[in-house]
Amino acid sequence: MNRTALIVGASGITGSNLAHELISQGWTTYGLARNPNKVDGMYPVAADLLDPESLTAALAEVAPTHVFITSWMRMETEAENIRVNAAMVRNLLDALAPKKSVQHVALVTGLKHYLGPFEAYAKEGFLPETPLREEQPRLDIENFYYAQEDEVYAAAARDNFTWSIHRPHTVIGKAVGNQMNLGTTLAVYASICKESGRPFRWPGSEAQWNGLSDVTDARVLAKHLVWAATTEAAHNEAFNVVNGETFRWKWLWKRLANWFGVEYVGFDGTIHPLETEMANDGPLWQQIAERHNLVEPDLNRLASPWHTDLDLGRPIEVMTDMSKSRKLGFTVYQQTEESFFDLFAQLQKDRLIP
């Protein structure tokens, strides 16, 4: 079949990995971003999702059969998150509507669907039962993920396409300039610890240190997106998507430290936020980048400690149930420590860490 994909947010962790997956399967693939990366086999589309006129012009010659929305924009308040991120989805689908080409729209959100938005994230009164399951109802609080979903549902009813919602846990994969990048943040933190002689100290909560967790390899998420888009039984459904195994950070942390050859310190009774720990490391990273001939001297382009602190500081263990996808035939599995080790090796190869 002639399938044409439009990836929205093609420069991010999810979008860039999805591009490689689609291209490897022979899809005609367009990548939309404000500054799209160059990917062999992908046609770049430069557009601003908040500017309907520029969006319409940029998509004038693009008639996708499948749309994958992996992009969002962080604002100061949840009300602004809702206004801006809902508008991005709405503007995109409005621009595509006259073409009547779209058969399926996939939207990537995440576990804030269950844990609450940034302003009330994993707080008392909003703590769900785990493992997280798709059947759990929306929280009684405003959430930009809900607003994005509602825009997809409304456009699907209007334009008669199918949809899928994908809720990954923390996504592990390579990207530069990404707003939520735990894997690369930990790689940069470990590199700084090695260069400075500081210990690789656990920054989060006791619940996260001792409790069960899971993550989502960007390569698994890419395969899940394509699977749901092309599997009739998966249409018009929401899915959790993770690696397929659980782990404890107290088990994984020492393995990450060993990969870098640094001393590690586990939970010591106190949370040590990375946002504080790394607050003054910008000049040090510039020195490290110069010493090792790295390609990105700007620490803020690689690390997102605020987001890593959100994940690792949660007061409950968090893992997700994947049985809904499994029952419908999605059987991809990924060992989590290899997700991290593959990422670290890629970052070294691309001269992003020493």
UniProtKB/TrEMBL annotation:
Superkingdom of origin: Bacteria
Cited Gene3D superfamilies: NAD(P)-binding Rossmann-like Domain
Alphabetized InterPro entries for the sequence: NAD(P)-bd_dom_sf (IPR036291), PRISE-like_Rossmann-fold (IPR055222)
Secretion signal span: none
Pfam family, one: PRISE
Domain PRISE-like Rossmann-fold, first and last residues per copy: 65-292
Protein name, as recorded: NAD-dependent dehydratase
Organism per entry: Pontibacter korlensis
